[in-house]
Specification:
Blueprint: E1 24-25, E2 31-34, E3 37-40, E4 55-62, E5 65-71, E6 87-90, E7 119-128, E8 137-146, E9 160-164, E10 167-176, E11 179-183, E12 201-203
InterPro entries: ConA-like_dom_sf, GH11/12, GH12
Protein name: Endoglucanase, putative
Family: Belongs to the glycosyl hydrolase 12 (cellulase H) family.
Length: about 200
C-alpha cells in the first residue's frame, strides 16, 4: 500500500482494521472528493487476488486536514506483487518545481494487523518535462516499511545517505518502466549526477 502526496497541514490515518467506517467504497478504482483531496481505493493488484478485496473510507475532513482509512481481510497474491496504492491525493495547480518553495506537511498513521504484512507509508510526487506531459520522475519519501517492503533500485544499494531532522535516510534510485524513481529523499539532496530538473512540472496521479 502506498499513500501518495499529502500536502499542507495534513493528518492521514491508515489502519488495516479500522475501529469505525464512514463513506466506505470498495470498487477497484472507486474514489471520493474530500475538500482539497481525492481519496482513492486504487486496488491495483485486484486481478492477482480476486478474493482479497479492499475498502477505503473517509473519516473526517477539516480544512486542510483529512483523516481516512483502508482495510482488507487478506492477501493471497504473489508476495512481490503490489495489492493496492490506496491514497489521499492533493488537488493542486500544475506548476514547475522551480516555483515551489516549500511543501509543509504533517502525517500521522496507524497500522493494525496480525503481524503478517508487507507495506509502506510514503509521500509520493510525480513530475513531467512539461505541464500535462508524460511522467518522467517519481519522488517518494518513505515514512515506514513493514514486512520487508523495499524501494525500486537498480543496484540494491543506496546512492546516497543523508540526515534530515535528525533522521537518517538512504536514497535509492530505480526505474518503473520509463519513469526514473527516487526513494527516500528530496530532489535538492540528490547527487549532482542524479537530479530532477527544476523545470519539471508536478503532475497529478
Amino acid at each position: 500500500m502506498k499513500l501518495p502526496l499529502v500536502i499542507a497541514a495534513t493528518a492521514a490515518t491508515v489502519a488495516a482494521f479500522p475501529a469505525f467506517a464512514k463513506d466506505e467504497f470498495c470498487g477497484q478504482y472507486d474514489s471520493i472528493q474530500a475538500g482539497d483531496y481525492i481519496v482513492h481505493n486504487n486496488l491495483w493488484g485486484q486481478d492477482n487476488d480476486k478474493a482479497g478485496g479492499q475498502c477505503t473510507g473517509l473519516d473526517s475532513i477539516d480544512g486542510s486536514t483529512i483523516a481516512w482509512h483502508m482495510s482488507f481481510p487478506s492477501w493471497v497474491g504473489d508476495n512481490w506483487q503490489v495489492k493496492s496504492y490506496a491514497n489521499a491525493a492533493l488537488k493542486f495547480n500544475l506548476v514547475q518545481l522551480s516555483s515551489v518553495k516549500s511543501i509543509p506537511t504533517t502525517m500521522e498513521y496507524t497500522y493494525k494487523y496480525d503481524g503478517n504484512i508487507i507495506t509502506n507509508v510514503a509521500y509520493d510526487l510525480f513530475t513531467s518535462p512539461s505541464i500535462g506531459g508524460e511522467t518522467a520522475y517519481e519522488l517518494m519519501v518513505w515514512l515506514a516499511a513493514l514486512g520487508g517492503a523495499w524501494p525500486l533500485t537498480t543496484t540494491g544499494q543506496p546512492i546516497k545517505s543523508v540526515k534530515l531532522g535528525g533522521v537518517d535516510f538512504n536514497l535509492y534510485q530505480g526505474w518503473n518502466n520509463k519513469t526514473k524513481v527516487f526513494t527516500y529523499q528530496f530532489f535538492d539532496e540528490l547527487p549532482a549526477d542524479n537530479t530532477i530538473e527544476t523545470t519539471q512540472a508536478r503532475t497529478p496521479l
